[in-house]
From TrEMBL:
Domain of life, source organism: Bacteria
Natural source organism: Bifidobacterium fermentum
GO aspect biological process, one term: glycogen catabolic process
Main EC class the enzyme belongs to: transferase
Pfam families, per the entry: Phosphorylase
Record-given protein name: Alpha-1,4 glucan phosphorylase
Keywords recorded for this protein, A-Z: Carbohydrate metabolism, Glycosyltransferase, Pyridoxal phosphate, Transferase
GO cellular component, one term: cytoplasm
Entry-linked InterPro entries: Glycg_phsphrylas, Glyco_trans_35, Pyridoxal_P_attach_site
Catalytic activity, EC: 2.4.1.1
Endpoints of the signal sequence: none
């Protein structure tokens, strides 16, 4: 007997159908007979939101009245994915929804596919924030996600006739937004510019130049089977001066609406850089805008109606997690609010602030650590600049009293000296909060040893690790229903959906022939599903008898899509010239999915190369049935949800020491793909858990990389040593993938041969060698399946529920509210 604990709401199919019909008539203005699939989607979304709202109000009330400290997760990005199917699952309404829309004459999957995907994030960091709000609600923790509702999210990626990336605006709100509720009554004023003057009793008074209105857009976050519905509050900017009458009276109608346009620009567009932010004024405005509104919102929520709230109790009410440096301006902002708005003295304000904030660092790349010119901060936020200077001065004194030498102090300054003084946001976050965590064991270690070395020496107790996780609701239960059913049957229960460690119970089944057989059938069926989806959506005709080999993630040199594409080219050349044994090679379909930052030339050129390799390889009858390359455009969560369950080999091949954690790697392992990867980020922990025999490890390790840098790395040495590599680079250079144009990829080939900072050349041979081993294993299907099952069984640790439990215990010191 299978023990099913999944939530199932008491609402019947009939009730739900009636509610949808009523909504269609009253809110969408159509009868059920005239309704289109888009009408039914919108009506259903509104009905589900309404249905959840009483639990939501209840959870908020209990949070304010109770004495469990809440969590405010501050993140400039929340890549939440489509909402409908997730809300239905977590609320226990999936069956009723399917029954109801069928009665109305629609296919449930068509209704679900109507929803546009909100692209309010770039990649891993934004998706992590979304997994965390899901887990917080599912564990029953009172929490807010706080961020920005961008009018235009991450661009929609298309490819032109030459295979180049073209960025198109993402009009995701064009059909309305049934999930987000704009709460004009609870807006906040956020101010900028101006000057600071002396006030009474030594106070400093900020006289800002201009203000915008931050209006919250509330999304409900229903926990899975927890009954708790939390809030994701994304701020949108509106003008206070809708219309400038004086300008209008001068007959300048367009000029009269300029204040509105200016204000609303703040939340108009998500910056599309991943890993290397742009130090732009508007970006700083965005950061301050959402953080200031969120801090005031928390005060309004927890001290509602109090004429003279005692804000020294703030750290008992809420703690703020800073998701990377984007919200770090919150530290001086809270200091300013406590001192200037509530009259609290510096020392008390500093104590409250330090106990309220914690900081998650997401990178090791020095160029990704945000730094702002002091001049810019002074122009936009003059009072904050004063406070940052004072924090820095106090910090320098503290370092002196600790006996740190002047060079050490200079390295650690939050505020650098000189005419081009800079503010180092990671340092401000480290000093202004209680804990700093990295996002995987290796990453946290490298933070202590390298990136924030001086800080960890001076404040060793501040540094900790929380390895990232992903939500099993979206990435297993929803994305892979066949595997979910098989797991539930294998374990005899579906408790794994909220306790992913239960997957360990699958270990004995890896040696059960009938389970292995059924596991293989699940993967085959998922491959056929993906082929159908990709045929429909991208026009691909994929041979499902081939190995599905995927590399999907943002395009970045450190992630090394170049290594994969060079290996594909080498394989192509070997099949063509007969040097590969045709009877031995394993037919593959290689999938890439990746967006490049619009200004990142090398990444965009790599996209062009991949597309052209795909064109040439797929058109060449000589390799038909052996090798094919597909690059579905516009990689997003929807594509991830379709491709990951169908993938057999997952590529996690970044240069060791560069990927902080990765979460894609976790999604794949949990869906029964085997990983080929370097010892980087969370790969290290995945391999430890699934077992070295069930992970294809290759390449340089962190120490090797450091040694090579120190000794003077020369890529030519590796190019000379491997004729397959030389051949592949020659083909890129000789016009094979550019209709004879020998210049097309010159920037790439010259980088490979002369610079190759991420050591793609040095790892090529090891990568080719491990592919042999992979193919041999794949040709023993039961052995492959056994390893894949063990990957699933041992990956429960990578649930975001576990990550949140780590944060609760080690950093936030709070708990679920019963
Ligand atoms: C999980 C995910 C990512 C992160 O992938 P990595 O391989 O960890 O870089 C990026 N984008 C989307 C859409 C995702 O779902």
């Amino acid at each position: 007997m299978v023990d099913v604990t999944a939530p199932h709401a008491s609402l019947s199919v009939e009730d739900l159908r009636k509610r949808i019909t009523t909504n269609l008539q009253h809110r969408q203005g159509v009868g059920p007979k005239e309704a289109t699939v888009a009408d039914v989607y919108k009506a259903t979304a509104e009905v589900i939101r309404d249905y959840l709202s009483s639990s939501w109000l209840d959870a908020t009330r209990r949070m304010v009245e109770g004495n469990v400290k809440a969590v405010g997760y501050l993140s400039a990005e929340f890549l939440i994915g489509r909402q409908l199917s997730n809300a239905l699952l977590n609320a226990g309404l999936t069956d009723q929804f399917e029954g109801a829309v069928k009665e109305l004459g629609f296919e449930p999957k068509d209704v679900i596919a109507t929803e546009p995907e909100p692209g309010l994030g770039n990649g891993g960091l934004g998706r992590l924030a979304a997994c965390y709000v899901d887990s917080l609600a599912s564990l029953g923790v009172p929490a807010f996600g706080y961020g920005i509702q961008y009018r235009y999210g991450i661009f929609r990626q298309e490819f032109d006739g030459q295979g180049r990336q073209v960025e198109k605006p993402d009009y995701w709100l064009s059909e309305g937004n049934p999930w987000g509720h704009e709460d004009f009554v609870r807006s906040q004023r956020v101010s900028f510019g101006g000057t600071v003057v002396d006030g009474e009793n030594g106070a400093r008074v900020w006289k800002p130049d201009w203000s915008v209105r931050a209006v919250p857009v509330d999304y409900l976050v229903p926990g899975y089977d927890s009954g708790r519905v939390n809030t994701l509050r994304l701020w949108t900017a509106k003008s206070y001066d809708e219309f400038d009458l004086a300008t209008f009276n001068r007959s300048d109608y367009m000029g009269a609406v300029i204040p509105q346009v200016d204000a609303e620009n703040i939340t108009k567009v998500l910056y599309p850089e991943d890993s290397t932010p742009q130090g732009k004024r508007l970006r700083l405005e965005q950061q301050y805008f959402f953080v200031s509104a969120s801090i005031h919102d928390a005060i309004r929520t927890f001290y509602a109606g109090e004429a003279q709230p005692d804000l020294t109790t703030l750290p008992d009410k809420i703690c703020f997690q800073l998701n990377d440096t984007h919200p770090v301006i919150g530290i001086p902002e809270l200091m300013r609010v406590l001192m200037d708005e509530y009259g609290i003295d510096w020392d008390t304000a500093w104590d409250v602030t330090r106990r309220t904030f914690n900081y998650t660092c997401h990178t090791l790349l020095p160029e990704a650590l945000e730094v702002w010119p002091a001049k810019l901060i002074g122009e936009l936020l003059p009072r904050h600049l004063e406070i940052i200077k004072a924090i820095n001065a106090q910090f320098v004194e503290e370092l002196e009293s600790k006996g740190i030498d002047p060079e050490g102090i200079d390295r650690m300054r939050i505020f650098t000296d000189g005419p081009d003084a800079q503010i180092r946001m990671a340092y401000l976050a480290t000093v202004g909060g209680s804990y700093v965590n990295g996002v995987a064991a290796l990453h946290s270690q490298l933070l202590k040893d390298v990136t924030l070395k001086d800080f960890s020496a001076a404040y060793p107790d501040k540094f900790t690790n929380v390895t990232n996780g992903v939500t099993p609701r979206r990435f297993i239960k929803l994305a892979n229903p066949r595997l979910s059913d098989l797991i539930t049957e294998g374990l005899g229960s579906d408790r794994w959906i909220h306790d992913l460690d239960e997957l360990e119970g699958l270990v004995p089944l890896a040696d059960d022939a009938s389970f292995v057989e059924r596991f293989r059938k699940v993967k085959d069926a998922n491959k056929r599903d993906f082929a159908a989806y990709a045929s429909d959506k991208f026009g691909f005709s994929i041979d499902t008898g081939t190995m599905f080999d995927s590399m999907i993630k943002r395009l970045h040199e450190y992630k090394r899509q170049s290594l994969k594409i060079l290996a594909v080219i080498a394989e192509y050349a070997a099949i063509k010239d007969g040097s590969a044994d045709v009877d031995e090679i394993q037919p593959r379909s290689v999938f890439f999915g990746a967006k490049a930052a619009p200004g990142y030339a090398m990444a965009k050129l790599t996209i062009r190369l991949i597309n052209n390799v795909a064109r040439v390889v797929n058109d060449d009858p000589a390799v038909k049935g052996k090798l094919a390359v597909y690059f579905p455009w516009n990689y997003n969560i929807d594509l991830a949800e379709h491709l990951i369950p169908a993938t057999e080999l997952d590529e996690q091949i970044s240069q060791a020491g560069k990927e902080a954690s990765g979460t894609g790697n976790m999604k794949f392992a949990l869906n029964g793909a085997l990983t080929v990867g370097t010892l980087d980020g969370a790969n290290v922990e995945i391999r430890e858990r699934v077992g070295a025999d069930n992970f294809f490890l290759f390449g340089l390790e962190v120490d090797d990389v450091e040694k090579l840098y120190a000794d003077g790395y020369d890529p030519m040495k590796y190019v000379h040593a491997d004729s397959r590599l030389r051949r592949a680079i020659d083909m890129v250079a000789d016009g094979t993938f550019s209709n004879g144009d020998r210049n097309a990829y010159a920037a790439l080939t010259s980088d490979w041969l002369t610079h190759d900072y991420f050591m793609t050349m040095a790892d090529f041979t090891a990568y080719m060698d491990i592919q042999k081993e992979i193919e041999e294993t794949y040709q023993k299907p039961d052995e492959w399946a056994r390893k894949a099952i063990l990957n699933v069984a041992h990956s429960g640790f990578f649930s975001s529920d576990r990550a949140i439990e780590d944060y609760l215990r080690d950093i936030w010191h709070t708990q679920p509210q019963r």
